[in-house]
Amino acid sequence: MNRFDYIRPASAAEAFAEAARPGSAYLAAGTNLLDLMKGGAARPDRLVDISRLPGLDRIETLADGGVRIGALVRNADLAYDAGIQRRFPAVSEALLSGASPQLRNAATLGGNLLQRTRCPYFYDVASACNRRTPGSGCDALHGENRLHAVLGWSEHCIATHPSDLCVPLVGLDAVVELEGPGGAREVQLEALHCLPGATPERETVLAPGELIVAVRLPPQGAGLAAHSRYLKVRERTSFAFAVVSAFAGLELDGGTIRTARVALGGVAARPWRARTAEAALEGAPASPDSFARAAEIALADAHPSGENGFKIALARRLIVRALKDALAGTPEAPAALPASPFAPHPGADHAA
After folding, report:
1. Number of folded domains that form the chain
2. Hey, which residues does 176 pair with through a beta bridge?
3. Contacts of 284 (CB under 8 A, 6+ apart)
4. Does 130 fall in a domain?
5. pTM of the prediction?
6. Which of 94, 132, 308, 321 could make an S-S bridge to 230, C-beta 3.0–4.6 Å?
7. 163, 176 in Cβ contact below 8 A?
């Protein structure tokens, strides 16, 4: 680990000013950043500790019925919040499928959104990685790449974004509130993460010194609460990142789909909103044929980036499964193996 300066600002304005200086990085829980620093994949000259800035650790119900979640809200607190479980249950389901109870107790909402890829070539400083060292190449292209992207990738980077939480948030039209030296602004979460193109080192749209201060969930997403699921396929039962994950939410009018939301994880450098699949579902009968057709449409532009063609078929099947499970109704309690398509239906307690 390189030597670095540590700064604990007393105010948000001081934090923005310090973090805008070249070589700076924000520090909250550090569950991702510290691992990267220990391995040499990240080498900031300055850490700006925002973990004690006031007002960023609240979950608030808004006047319009939406919810505002501060960037320093812990993942465990968000997962077990009664209002979130009741109105946005897939958010809770996604959080409980990730990491371990110990990490969920430490990790924050903002850190979850900004966690970096788990591509092994990104972590291995002896490997060529355009995301870590621009212009060095991408060893993943011709290396071990069975878990890499099938949507939105380029010859410069085939990494995927690892977040579980981001997948239902994107499907629920989450809005990210940003503040920085240039003032305050908002972006749709769907637009927060950049596809690699020719500049994979540009991972998000954040400007230097900008900080995620909150995420808002619009009230319309609560209309999906009775029929929403987040499912995750992983290589081991727990504490593993998604090979592929899927969020599905439905509003029904009898046997017809009035509103549909579909999003995927583990397939691209950002959580992937399948808007064409949603359009195909809306107004269609809530049937296996409709679900299968939507899954085909969702992956129509997918193609392997290496030895990962199986992920395309897997993603199609997982969309169908998520839609069928959503149609059957949201469970009253999280499944015994949260977000696993192989989990039994009876609920179980989860230690926070």
Report:
1. 1
2. 187, 215
3. 256, 257, 290, 293
4. no
5. 0.95
6. 94
7. no
